[in-house]
Design a protein that fits this description.
- The chain is α/β, with parallel strands linked by helices.
- It has one domain: Alpha-Beta Barrel (TIM Barrel), CATH 3.20.20.70.
- It is built from 12 helices and 10 strands.
- Strands 1, 2, 3, 4, 5, 6, 7, 8, 9 and 10 form a 10-stranded parallel sheet that branches.
- β2, α5 and β3 form a beta-alpha-beta unit.
- Mean pLDDT is about 90; it is low at about 330-354.
- Bound molecules: iron/sulfur cluster.
- Iron/sulfur cluster binds near residues 79, 117 and 119.
Length: about 350
């Protein structure tokens, strides 16, 4: 296996946008020697710098509609099939969503997603609320707008795009070979179809998974390969924060080093893509959170997650600055008009984005 890891070859391929093979990724999984791990972090960081400079994508979300979901996803406290303490409420109104987005903007968020529980959002009134909120958020802040609304048809995505929505988030959750062990109410192909519909519309696609649910390392690599095949633009990496009342409430599998290795492998499989560290960052990485950039990540979710609290935004902004990184301005808005004092968002990446 060791001969599969030629670091200079991996790096020169990554610089050209060519990712490692599944066999190489599995060889990396087996590395334990501190010097080998050092080479891994160096190579992943160099790949990230080559394609992303020192920019950090900062994502924020509104849990726009919570709980009472008819689907069965073992990690999720919003499923109506589990007894959990997740909040339950109907879709928030436009002014509430708009105010949340404005607050997120003032705390350094540059990409904002409206997230709703449920199999899919097909209710006309709800769709119109999301469309109106997207338009209002774009007018207020110029942030990149995104939504995560379950299994969406091309028709509904097209309407949201016309309202100003640029990105679609929909996680595959895990590898195809493990999906049925985690999700019993819809299929892997249902998930893939939503991503394909968004891609067909030319939207920015954001799709990743959750780690620490009982999947093997081979299945983590399988997910990375599936996402490469789908050619998604951005990959959110979540590390399970087990929720009381869910079937996975006792799952505690990941070490901080496992999380960093997952980030590095995804960076080397997907050298040109955005890699965003999302849920479970604090609880799984602890004091090693700042190492996510060394491991190859170029984005973080700021603020609270769906049903769990994140770190204080100021702590994350300080971490970004301490690591010599700067917040990437929203696409199409090189000079944001109302940056909060102290929130840095300047510089130029290799693509000339100011
Ligand atoms: S992950 Fe989404 S679809 Fe699955 S139970 Fe939770 S809210 Fe419902």
């Amino acid at each position: 296996m060791a001969d599969l890891i030629d670091w200079s070859d991996i790096l020169s391929n990554a610089e050209r946008g060519v990712g490692i093979s599944a066999e190489q990724a599995l060889a990396i999984v087996r590395l334990t020697d501190p010097q080998d791990l050092q080479r891994l972090w160096q190579t992943a960081e160099a790949s990230r710098r080559e394609h992303k400079g020192n920019f950090v994508n900062t994502c924020g979300i509104s849990n726009a509609k919570s709980g009472r979901c008819p689907e069965v996803c073992s990690f999720c406290s919003q499923s109506a099939h589990f007894e959990t303490d997740a909040p339950k409420y109907q879709l928030k109104d436009v002014e509430t969503l708009r105010a949340e987005a404005r607050d997120a903007w003032e705390h350094g968020v540059r990409e904002f997603s409206l997230v709703a529980s449920g199999r899919a959002m097909t209710n006309r009134k709800e769709l119109d609320t999301i469309k109106a909120a997207v338009t209002a958020i774009r007018e207020d802040t110029g942030m990149q707008t995104c939504a995560s609304l379950g299994l969406m048809s091309k028709q509904h995505l097209s309407e949201l795009k016309d309202a100003g929505m640029q990105a679609v988030h929909h996680n595959l959750e895990t590898a195809r070979s493990f999906h049925a062990s985690i999700v019993s109410s819809h299929s892997y192909d249902d998930e893939v179809d939503t991503i394909r519909a968004a891609r067909d519309l030319g939207m920015y696609t954001c799709s990743g998974g959750i780690f620490g649910m009982g999947e093997s390392w081979a299945q983590r690599v399988e997910l990375a390969m599936e996402l490469r095949e789908l050619d998604v633009d951005s990959v959110p990496l979540n590390f399970l924060n087990p929720r009381p009342g869910t079937p996975l409430e006792e799952s505690r599998e990941l070490t901080a080093e496992d999380c960093l290795k997952i980030i590095a492998i995804f960076r080397l499989v997907l050298p040109t893509k955005d890699l965003i560290v999302c849920g479970g960052r604090s609880v799984n990485l602890g004091e090693r959170q700042a190492d996510i950039f060394r491991a190859g990540a170029n984005g973080v979710m700021l603020g609270n997650y769906l049903t769990t609290a994140g770190r204080e935004a100021d702590d994350d902004l300080a971490m970004i600055e301490e690591q010599g990184m700067v917040i990437r301005p929203p696409p199409h808005m090189p000079h944001p008009p109302s940056l909060r004092p102290g929130v840095r968002s300047e510089g130029t990446d290799k693509n000339g984005v100011a």
